[in-house]
Amino acid sequence: MRSDLPKVLHPLAGEPMILHILRKLRSIPRVKQILLVIKHQASLVAERVRDCFPEEERIQYVLQGEENGTASAVASALVRVTQPHVLILCGDAPLIRKSTIDAVLDEYFKEDSAGLVVSALRNEPNDLGRICRDSRGNLTAICEKGSGPAYRQSCEVNSGMYCYPVSVLRDTIPKIAPNTKKNEYYLTDMVRILAGNGKRLTSFVVPDYREILGVNTVDDLYQAEKIILKYENGTASFPGPDPEQSP
């Protein structure tokens, strides 16, 4: 991002991007606890969030130890979780709609599964992990770029957002092995491990792939701001596809 400012504090449509996500979560009554996993300039992030939501007792802060992957970040938070189910969102993906979060939770609690993966359909080239399925349509893995034909044949991309029972997370995360290239522990391996043990997972495909767009560069931030300024009506809603950006 070419800045010392923590990524989640970069301004998006007039306020730090993390606040866009937190506002939506705070407006959902069934969200009983919000754990914000922070590392880089953690005290600054916590201070900014507290300034905005000084009386919000549901928001709590978890300091991630060693930054060695998404599974490690979630594991850091598990010791503080007080609820039986966990919704995992990305602090740098602020465009997810409140209505979509509600729909994800509805789908998750409707199904008797070991977990739910939030995905999107995107045909143009990208580096996102792909949802891999067997011949019956069951989720088998989240394949990363360069992992072979299964990756190339899928246009269903992973959002990095999930729902899991906390018991499943506590049992499965310790089984995740470090990635051989980066020596990091990836939460995406949950799907492969669970499916390999005969567990059924479900998915929720977001209605507009832009909802899962992550902000990693200055250009990403600019594009996210264009989307919000064009469509936001108080709840960051998307009234319909943008003909200029739809696949």
Distance between the termini: 26 Å
Contiguous helical run count: 8
Give, in spatial order, the strands making up the sheet with the most strands. 5-9-6-10
How much is the average pLDDT?
Answer: 88
CATH architecture: Alpha-Beta Complex
Please write the string of helix (H) and strand (E) elements: EEHEHEHEHEEEHEHHEH
Descriptive terms for the model:
single chain; 247 residues; alpha/beta; Spore Coat Polysaccharide Biosynthesis Protein SpsA, Chain A; four-stranded mixed β-sheet; two-stranded antiparallel ribbon; 8 helices; 31% helix
Question: What does it look like?
Answer:
The structure is a single chain. Helices cover 31% and strands 19% of the residues. The protein is an alpha/beta fold. The protein has one domain (7-231): Spore Coat Polysaccharide Biosynthesis Protein SpsA, Chain A, CATH 3.90.550.10. Helix 2 (42-52) links the parallel strand 3 (34-38) and strand 4. The longest helix is centred in the last third of the chain and has 14 residues, at 218-231. The protein starts with 10 loop residues before the first strand and ends in a 16-residue tail after the last helix. Residues 239-247 have low confidence and may be disordered.
